[in-house]
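Recap from last week: sequence in, structure out.
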Amino acid sequence: MNVKIYSRKAMEELLSKGLPENVAVISFYDPKSKRTPKDYSPIDYSGKCKRVFQIGVHDIDLDILADYGLTYNTYLPESDELAKFIYEAKNVGLDIICQCEYGQSRSAACAAAILEYFYQSGISVFADYRYYPNQMVFHKVFDSLEKFKIQQKSKENERESQALYEQHKEFMDMLKDE
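Predicted structure tokens:
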């Protein structure tokens, strides 16, 4: 799975030329606030990409969460759904494009989290002078990928336990019949 980072401008150019078919897009946009222009809107991917996960999230640091009425736990509440989206894209062999307004902070953090989680190479994004990964986005995405994996393993274990129980029950029923 290739993971790429795009700005809004670069993504709009790519969309005008045609997005590759084997791609899923994670698009971060600025949520409505007194700081966003009135005519601002997220990129419209309709009819251009089948797999898109759009997230309105402020590009802020831990220090000023309270100024936005947020806590670490309420920042990026979509991260668990995003982890599922990432796993689904990976499982069907799609590449992922992470896009945000300038292609430097939120998208870079998301890309770094994906690369670190699956390939232990997220440091490559942090080391690249073009990017300034948002630490909270990185940790929220990375932690949700970990959580998703644990939940999947738990479901697998439940299915295996249920199958063993059913086998045991059948065996005990056979012994009764003898």
